[in-house]
Amino acid sequence: MKIQRVSSKWAKTNAILLNPTLSNYIPDTRKYNFSTLVEMLAVHATVYVKPDRGTYGSGVMRAEQRLVSLAPSIQADGSEDRKAVRKEEKTMYILRYNKTAQIFASPQELHEAILGRTQGKFYLIQKGIDLLRHHDRPFDLRVLAQKTPIGTWETTGMLGRVAAPHKIVTNYHNGGRIFQVNTLFKEHMTPSESSTAIQQLKQLGVQIAGQLELSYPGIKEIGLDVALDQHHNMWLLEVNTLPSIIVFKMFPDKSIYRRIHRYAVAYGRLKKSEGTVSSRRKAL
Ligand SMILES: Nc1ncnc2c1ncn2[C@@H]1O[C@H](COP(=O)(O)OP(=O)(O)O)[C@@H](O)[C@H]1O
Ligand SMILES: [Mg+2]
């Protein structure tokens, strides 16, 4: 049977939101329009705007609303401007994408700039998560869950992705670097916190897979993009139904990839001999 793939982030998000426990992992996510932009900025200050059917971090933007204090201006006669003495504050709007940042004075101008990039396509707006960092660069995690040959779900792989300098996305196809989860966690957690978090991620992989399977019975593998915020809370940014497998080959523990490969052969993604080079599209 053909492996089911689902490209709409909106559809997958709604399938997960049907489960009240799992809905706690989903950051506030809505359909993009001017009023959701204004509302979400008022509540979250930072939001991500992304294509419903995007991959590789393409088209992803970040919008921020910031209160900026204006420096007191000095009048020609040397007396301070009266307004400035009252420490005038102004709201500014920042739009970031690729390595670009643009500043706007109103939400209307910000919206116009976003529309210029969305080109009429369906975009989502999501609460921005303040990601943990590795050497001052944000990182998130990829968690791979697969159908086992006996028909259960298992989390079979996990890795960290660190954003390239000045990028707002961590995707490998956007210059992100791959790390072992342990390496990244030990900069923020004790060994016991780290192993608890890894256990939680494994569980999350299995739970999300089980939930998505209720709406999409033909899925066999998923890749979760999980963010950790400054309080180490876990957030599910998106779920890929055609996750990269080959990327797990680079880890020194070869048994990890061998199991991933064995399961992928069992459910028909790979042929037994295949797997050294994957010609399939890899959404990491
Ligand atoms: N809500 C968010 N908060 C913080 N970072 C985000 C958010 N949404 C996306 N990102 C960053 O952008 C990357 C790409 O977004 P994602 O939703 O995974 O789309 P894609 O399908 O293009 O990979 C994520 O891996 C993450 O680094
Ligand atoms: Mg992604």
Give a topology summary.
Layout: H1 9-17, H2 20-23, E1 29-31, H3 34-44, E2 46-51, E3 61-69, H4 82-85, E4 89-97, E5 100-104, H5 107-118, E6 123-127, E7 133-134, E8 137-147, E9 153-162, E10 177-179, H6 181-185, H7 191-215, E11 221-228, E12 234-240, H8 254-266
Antiparallel strand pairs: 1-6, 2-3, 2-6, 3-4, 4-5, 7-8, 8-9, 8-11, 9-10, 11-12
The structure holds adenosine-5'-diphosphate and magnesium ion.
Number of domains in the coordinates?
2
Please report the first level of CATH classification, the CATH class of the largest domain: Alpha Beta
Shape: globular
Strand order of the largest sheet: 1-6-2-3-4-5
Low-confidence stretches: none
- Percent of residues in helical segments? 25-40%
CATH superfamily of the largest domain: ATP-grasp fold, B domain
Average pLDDT figure:
93
CATH topology of the largest domain: D-amino Acid Aminotransferase, Chain A, domain 1
Oligomer: single chain
Percent strand: 25-35%
Return the string of H and E elements.
HHEHEEHEEHEEEEEHHEEH
Give the class from helix and strand content and strand pairing.
alpha+beta
How many helices? The count is 8
Rg calculated over all Cα atoms? 22 Å
In the CATH hierarchy, the architecture of the largest domain is 2-Layer Sandwich
Notable traits:
six-stranded antiparallel β-sheet; 12 strands; binds adenosine-5'-diphosphate; alpha+beta; D-amino Acid Aminotransferase, Chain A, domain 1; binds magnesium ion; single chain; 284 residues
